[in-house]
Amino acid sequence: MWWVLWVLAALLALFCSFDVWYFLRAAVVILRAWFQPPIWDVTAEQTLTGRVTPNDIDMCHMNNARYLRECDFARFSLYMRNGVFKAVRALRASMVVGATTIRYRRALCIGEGYELRSRIVTWDDKAFFLEQRFVSAKDGLVCAVMYCKQSVIRSSPDKIMQHLCKRKVECPEFPEDLQHWVNFISASSQALRAESGLDEKNK
Fold first, then answer.
1. Which burial class, exposed, middle or buried, applies to 156 when counting CB atoms under 10 A from its CB (0-12, 13-18, 19+)?
2. DSSP assignment of 78-144, as one string?
3. What is the pLDDT of residues 60-114, one digit of tens each?
4. What pTM, to 2 d.p., does this model score?
5. How far is CA 50 from the centre of its chain?
6. Helices 64-82 and 20-34, axial angle in degrees (round to 10)
7. CA distance 11 to 2
């Protein structure tokens, strides 16, 4: 009987200390992507389907933070299928989210189905830039669109693309709206560096 109490106590401590469901969901997503057909075109769009559940909502529509969470899982799946995760491991690199921006156009309501379409739009010398769209299954409306800057550490997007394609790959041009956002990130970084005195210290 005591071992049951110890197990329950351990589970309680685990769920109180970590977002267990996030890690379980991530493991399931990665495992599922492992058995799906690979995406040979690194910039090709991947589509995942979902449905708004009671766990996702506030005021009967999807909570704004849930969109970002679902985008995390979609990127995990995309990187598994297009080989980016494999290339990152081979190059002993890593990736982190450097910035995101999301625009909400119409609420996804409880029970509503949707498609989450993810693709790598372009890249620079430090990061990949992705677009992720939530498209309503009932009428095809883009309910939300997010841009993500996926920064590469200890390597570069060019090296990852060369590892995958075995040749030099020219990056696509930045769409106008994405370029505006990248300019904002750059301006924000410069302002914050000046505010903290980092520019003066580096002179």
1. middle
2. HHHHHSHHHHHHHTT-EEEEEEEEEEE-SPPBTT-EEEEEEEEEEE-SSEEEEEEEEEETTT--EEE
3. 899 999 999 999 999 999 999 999 999 999 999 999 999 999 999 999 999 999 9
4. 0.90
5. 16
6. 30
7. 14
